[in-house]
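Researcher: Let's try something more involved. This one mixes different molecule types, so please make sure each is placed in the same coordinate frame as the others.
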Amino acid sequence: MPTNFNWLLDGSIVGLYLLITMIAGIWVRRYVGKVEHFLVAGREMNLYLGIASLAATEFGIVTAMYTAQAGYTRGFSGAVPGLCNALAMFLVGWSGFCIKPLRDSGVITIPELFERRFGPFVRWLAGVVIVLGGLLNMGVFLRVGGQFLVVATGMNVQYLEIAMTTLLILVAVYTIFGGMLSVLVTDYLQFIVMSAGLLVVTVLVLVKVGWFDIITTVQGHYDVGAFNPFANKDLGWSFVVSNLITNTAAVLTWQTVISRLLSAKDTATGRKVYTGTAFFFVCRWILPGLWGMAALVMVEPKVLDGIARQMGEQSGTLFAMPALLAMIVPGGIMGILVAAMLAADMSTDSSYMLTWGSVIYNDILAPFRRRGNWSERKGLIINRFIVACIGLFLLFFGLWYKLGGNLWEYLQTTGTVYLSSMSIMLIACCYWRRANNWGAVAAILAGAILPVAALTANLFAKVQMDGKEVGWATATIGDAWVNIGTYIVVALAMVIGSLLKPQPKTQAPAA
Amino acid sequence: MEVLHYLWLGVTALCLLWYSTITVYVAVRGGKDIGQMLRNLSKLNDQATPPEGDGPRDMKRV
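Model: All components are placed in one shared frame. Result:
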């Protein structure tokens, strides 16, 4: 597909950005003296760095792709998850619900807090579930990022794997050397580049496509459902409720979000990072969503079908946004756009590798660490090795996994594997005295079994719906109801499991 | 329907305004935060002997 990407001009802008990022990321390695510096930056993160880092981490190419896809397929109603996320983030930050006791406890990861209440086995099991759910979720990031670059820059699809591998190696190098310190410093640079690119391209889209044309086109395609999620036949109440629950759970327990809270210099700063970043989650859905809606005006569906065939994917809607940008963004600004998207992707990848690595080290390896009397030096080496292993996993998973259907629904379902159990357990751990290890184990099992069963049913049992082949669970139950049902079952498992365990004699009422 | 059009126009305008403001503000204040963080870590590392050496058996709890 033709594009305005100029390899000399735009390539130089991208190359300069990558060089500065690498230098900054590797330079701060000198400040890493202990495992705590590597995992939570010595808890020295202040408010504005926290806002920059959280915003940069929570916006990758994958985010731009699925939010634009939501805009293309659902109009403004597609931005509902962003509104739910912002609301949840603001309320949790403002009230301190769960995050205050969590940060006050001084732990490095959530499972570490669980150990104090539910014992070492629950800590280990929670670590396993968090890592499994997180890595399944993260597995698609790299491929989707590479696909964006191929479509936007007009790069030959044969080079997709090479581009993905190079990008990952660059990110892995500074993350392995500097850990959370490198992540924070590069996130700061990436936040500035990413934000500049997002704003410039949004203005360009509005100028070149026009607000009125966008409104008219989405109304023509989806009628009132483009503006009102409750009137949209694909969304409705269940979608809104499901997103409210998922986003609240993510705000409470998603490892990359929580790592900012736990890296903050104190609880008040952590809470301010939440409230200060909340509205960004509206922006991260609205702005790329607008690009997706503009693609609905400008890009022919047959062009998208051609790109999907070229990429070996089932749906072309994911490529609407990069196809539009390839058409309308001129040389020079294209370099800023690609640098911005690379910035967004690198900050996300580095943070995800580090934070999931921190759970492997801190929780899954906790029994070995205690037994082996590991020194700080050994701890740092093992942490770096874990980050490298996660990078390798991402590379291979990203190369062979082909995504079918809506990207956001895939991310939500895989995320639910741990979000459901961890959020219910965290609430119970902080606020319910009767909660115990029986309930915790039951919650973890219920939270893992239901989403995995739905994913399996979708993979192996297909039914026809509106002329398309759709997974059985999606067609008969609906992704939103699977999600809501999982949270209800997990909460019941927590309560019933906890109540079934006999109370210790010391807690019995005096005769 | 027109009310909804204006609602989303307002949300989009607010996003552009808020995001451009916060980008400039965070760019300035975040740079200062990095300087402060690195200075504090430098002091902590100077106090610790030896750097990257043997530390406590388990993680430090704050």
